[in-house]
Amino acid sequence: MPNAVMLDAESLGADINLTAIRDLVSHLEVYQQSTAEQASERLSDADIAIVNKVVLNAETLSTLPKLKLICVLATGLNNIDLDTAKAQNIIVKNVTAYGTASVSQHTLMLMLTLANRLPRYQADIARGEWQRSDFFCLQAHSTLQLSNKHLVMVGQGELGSEVARLAEAFGMKVTFAARPGNESNDKRPSLDDLLPTADIISLHCPLNETTKHLINRTRLANAKSSLLLVNCARGGIIDEEAALEALRAGKIGGLAVDVLPTEPPKEGHPLLTALAEGEALNLIVTPHNAWITPEARQNIVALTADNIKQWQTEASGLSAN
């Protein structure tokens, strides 16, 4: 049986059971965190490397002649040098659709929180506005009823489709935009055509050259002043400085993101600074934790075990031949 090493188990959390993986290998060495520099030494005797965000670049992979399989505990593969892995006959497998229920739930939470202006009302209560009110309720910030509102979705994969299903349960009218950069070959309406009537935009597309700053100053200028903007996809799809500028100017109604271009973010990121300084904005930033329900994290282990089984089956077939 193969020898496996997990380099950043802390990303899964201490409450997750690794038995499904342990049962498939002769030994599973578990490190809570590892630097790129530590990876070479820790993987020196490994047949299988199990990583989430640890970088395995060409330099590191070149020191690991025994390595046969890399299991990534995520969907994205940007931390693995795929060309070098292929050249060294190292198989790379990732996991997908492990957190559909978790992330779609989080997305709807952000929509609902923005629609009900929760950040503004929470700040009002903290300042004593309700306690000093002459009336039984506060109505300073206009809320948005989701029923019959137009939700524009960018990304119609499994996650986007599930968010659409949940939104329709609230009575929302959902339209999927054409894939960015492929509008001429896509029967769906373009994002630019949909923008003027969108009440909410929810992003569920990958980050690439076409989608970087997909939501920019030009597009925000064509949006409703009440637009709610939600990003649970990848940091960088929204030009965050432009979106914050529009929010401050009242040109959009709310902004919620679960992702930022650099994670963890650097000190001084404009969205975090706005929150830290208590600006009166309908603004929410969550720390890339839409995916972290225990069920989703345990799914990652199960899917990784499936990947190891598949690799073992394929390797056995090659050996038999």
3D structure, described in words:
The chain is of the alpha/beta class and 321 residues long. The chain has 2 domains: 3-97 and 294-320, 3-Layer(aba) Sandwich (Rossmann fold), CATH 3.40.50; 100-285, Rossmann fold (3-Layer(aba) Sandwich). 34% of the residues lie in helices and 13% in strands. The protein is built from 12 helices and 11 strands. The strands form 2 sheets. A 6-stranded parallel sheet has the order 7-6-8-9-10-11, with helices on both faces. The chain has a 5-stranded parallel sheet with strand order 2-1-3-4-5. Helix 5 (100-115) packs across helix 7. The mean pLDDT is 96. Keywords: NAD, Oxidoreductase. This is D-2-hydroxyacid dehydrogenase.
CATH architecture of the largest domain: 3-Layer(aba) Sandwich
Query: Could you state the order of secondary-structure elements as H and E?
Result: EHEHEHEHEHHEHEHEHEHEHEH
Average per-residue pLDDT, rounded, comes to 96
Strand order of the largest sheet: 7-6-8-9-10-11
Q: What would you report as the Rg, rounded to the nearest angstrom? A: 23 Å
Shape: elongated
Q: Please tally the helical runs, counting DSSP H or I stretches of 4 or more residues.
A: 12
Strand portion: 5-15%
Structural class: alpha/beta
Number of domains: 2
How are the secondary structure elements laid out?
Elements: E1 3-6, H1 19-22, E2 27-30, H2 36-42, E3 48-51, H3 58-61, E4 69-72, H4 82-87, E5 91-93, H5 100-115, H6 118-126, E6 150-154, H7 158-169, E7 173-176, H8 191-194, E8 200-203, H9 217-221, E9 228-231, H10 240-248, E10 254-257, H11 270-276, E11 283-285, H12 294-320
